[in-house]
Design a protein that fits this description.
With 49 residues, this protein is mainly alpha-helical. The chain has helices at 8-24, 28-45.
């Protein structure tokens, strides 16, 4: 598996977005975070995709 590096600034922006979506609808921010995590796992598994 190829390691993926997420910059600190990007991670902070992610959590800001999660908080924003959660404030709009309970669970929406967590769904967003879950999708980002899945996308990062796909990148790790197949970076040339």
């Amino acid at each position: 598996m190829t390691p993926v590096t997420v910059l600190h600034e990007a991670e902070m922006e992610l959590w800001e977005a999660v908080r924003f979506y959660e404030s709009r609808s309970a669970g929406l921010g967590l769904d967003f975070e879950r999708e980002i995590t899945l996308a990062l796992e796909l990148i790790q598994q197949s970076p040339e995709r």
